[in-house]
Design brief:
Elements (H helix, E strand, L loop, with lengths): L3 E2 L2 H23 L4 E7 L3 H16 L3 E7 L5 H13 L5 E4 L9 H5 L13 H8 L8 H14 L6 E5 L6 H10 L3 E5 L6 H7 L2 E4 L17 E4 L3 E5 L2 E5 L4 H5 L4 E2 L6 H20 L2
Helix pairs in contact: 1-10, 2-10, 6-7, 6-10
The structure holds guanine (GUN).
Subunit structure: Homodimer.
Organism: Pelagovum pacificum
Pfam families: THF_DHG_CYH (PF00763), THF_DHG_CYH_C (PF02882)
């Protein structure tokens, strides 16, 4: 079998076009422009790239983008004061504090100081709790993007065996909760899992989110399974470097029914879902 390649870039463009339509209607019918504030502390190069693309795409869909760049030595008090100001600003409907924060700042404290209604990352403890109990919440962008691709590919996910490899708060745990919400039988695998190969071989759905280049070999994949590869790993390739996922793409594609490529799979969906979450937050704030 040769897998269908799930085109995350094209799907993300469709999501952004829908968001742009929604933004137009909010402007025309209610005179409201949804606004997203992104806070970057320090100069982490990868974070710089993400924040720049978030700002660009926010503007492209017609929303207001507010970027706050703070130096790496910013105190916790200064950062908390900025978050308070954004919480109170009616022009700001979504707030994202880019992670990781410099080590002297307590990420949990900062994230939990964001108004949960503006927490477009879905990282605030109250949104985590709402998602974990199956209630309406802000859903973290990467797992939301993965779920949208799975639904588009498979329709109903009910009763399917799903394995999520990785137990991070940003991807693994919320992904598992979302799949449980779709009535999948969910296994969360991680670095201490005893027989990962066996767990993956049973799975109809594999979501790999560990950040280890090509750690899932193709021969672990069940024939016809759907593979969502969240990993974005830079590895040496001759004189240059190239991006690979957590799954060995070529060999997995020979067995899977469908698979996301890296790059061009999950990555573009994350920002599209961030924009969608901002519109959702704006609509909820304005009845
Ligand atoms: N750093 C890497 N991914 C993310 C994300 O989804 N949200 C935030 N805030 N920081 C990140």
């Amino acid at each position: 079998m040769s897998a269908q390649i799930i085109d995350g870039k094209a799907f993300a463009a469709e999501v952004r076009a829908k968001v742009a339509g929604h933004v137009d209607r909010l402007k025309e019918e209610q005179g409201i422009t949804p606004g997203l504030a992104v806070v970057l502390v320090g100069e982490d190069p990868a974070s710089e790239v993400y924040v720049r693309s978030k700002g660009r795409m926010t503007v492209e869909v017609g929303m207001a983008s507010f970027e706050h760049r703070l130096t790496a030595d910013t105190s916790e008090e200064e950062l908390l004061t900025l978050v308070e100001k954004l919480n109170a600003d009616p022009k700001v409907h979504g707030i994202l504090v880019q992670l990781p924060l410099p080590p002297h700042l307590d990420s949990n404290l900062v994230i939990n100081s964001i108004d949960p209604a503006k927490d477009v990352d879905g990282f605030h403890i109250s949104n985590v709790g709402l998602l974990g109990t199956g209630q309406k919440s802000m859903v973290p962008c990467t797992p939301l993007g993965c779920l949208m691709m799975l639904r588009e590919q498979l329709g109903s996910l009910s009763g399917l065996d799903a394995v999520v490899i990785g137990r991070s708060n940003i991807v693994g745990k919320p992904m598992a909760n979302l799949l449980l919400g779709e009535s999948c039988t969910v296994t969360i695998a991680h670095s201490r899992t005893k027989d990962l190969a066996e767990v993956v071989r049973r799975a109809d759905i594999v979501v790999a989110a560990v950040g280890r280049p090509e750690m899932v070999p193709g021969d672990w994949i069940k024939e016809g399974a759907t593979v969502i590869d969240v990993g974005i790993n830079r590895i040496p390739s001759g004189e240059k470097t190239r991006l690979v996922g957590d799954v060995a793409f070529e060999s997995a594609a020979a067995r899977a029914g469908a698979i996301t490529p890296v790059p061009g799979g999950v990555g573009p969906m994350t920002i599209a879902c961030l924009l969608a979450n901002t519109v959702t937050a704006c609509c909820r704030a304005n009845g």
